[in-house]
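Field log, afternoon session.

UNIT: design team B
ACTIVITY: writing a sequence onto a fixed backbone
BACKBONE:
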């Protein structure tokens, strides 16, 4: 397969899965392996195209960002609490990510880890959907400091490929009483600093791999992921509001089982 097609496919996969509770990193690893390419070689690319998905959130929620920015200038309570909650939830990922960077990176090419994480995470989602007791939170500004810290700690589980950052944060928030829609939006906004930090870290660590061709591939992959993510985010809120997360849980279980079967036959 030509490299150009691989880049486009991986961009589509990133845009499709970044904000769904199915693990974008896991799907990118499996897609790379399935298409016959070395997942370790493409690990940097898979992280570096995340700015496309980040931009999708900024474009779709620009009014919220603008309102919060203006509110911070006037030290408005809602804007301050909104920003505090995101920062508090972001800090654990920074600490754990820097401390365990080498261990995390060693798992980025392990398709078997992804498969098992998909299955276990699928059953975890079903459990949360069944037993979590949530109540209207009133948006991210209505999330408590304790809930924000809990979401940040749970997000660290997503450093294992296949767990899903969005899945961990959304289901983690719901486990601590945050309503479904607010949990999803919290996950969206938390993605901006988290994915930006992960991308900057990987680019700084592996800058020697950024040849002219790789930079072009990253730019194209990020552009494709942006377009796809914009479409997916809008549909995701509607699906979750109506059907919950169970469809994604069953998808994870089936996809993980299929991946294990495929890996055993290779």
């Amino acid at each position: 397969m030509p490299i150009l097609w691989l880049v486009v496919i991986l961009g589509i996969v990133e845009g499709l899965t970044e904000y769904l509770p199915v693990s974008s990193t896991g799907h990118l690893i499996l897609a790379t392996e399935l298409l016959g390419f070395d997942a370790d070689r493409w690990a940097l690319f898979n992280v570096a195209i995340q700015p496309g998905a980040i931009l999708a959130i900024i474009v779709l929620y620009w009014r919220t960002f603008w309102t919060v920015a203006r509110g911070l200038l006037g030290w408005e309570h809602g804007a301050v609490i909104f920003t505090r909650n995101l920062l508090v939830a972001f800090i654990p990922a920074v600490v754990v990510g820097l401390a365990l960077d080498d261990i995390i990176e060693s798992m980025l090419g392990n398709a078997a880890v992804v498969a098992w994480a998909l299955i276990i995470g699928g059953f975890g989602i079903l459990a949360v959907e069944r037993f979590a007791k949530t109540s209207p939170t009133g948006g991210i500004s209505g999330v408590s400091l304790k809930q924000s810290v809990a979401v940040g700690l749970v997000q660290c589980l997503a450093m294992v490929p296949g767990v899903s950052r969005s899945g961990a944060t959304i289901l983690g928030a719901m486990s601590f009483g945050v309503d479904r829609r607010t949990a999803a939006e919290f996950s969206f906004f938390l993605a901006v600093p988290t994915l930006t930090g992960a991308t900057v870290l990987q680019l700084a660590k592996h800058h020697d791999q950024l040849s002219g061709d790789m930079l072009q591939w990253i730019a194209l992959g990020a552009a494709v992921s942006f377009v796809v993510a914009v479409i997916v985010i809008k549909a995701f809120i509607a699906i979750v509001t109506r059907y919950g997360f169970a469809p994604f849980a069953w998808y994870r279980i089936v996809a993980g089982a299929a991946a294990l079967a495929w890996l055993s036959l290779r």
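LOG NOTE: The chain is about 75% helix and 0% strand.
NEXT ACTIVITY: expression trials, pending approval
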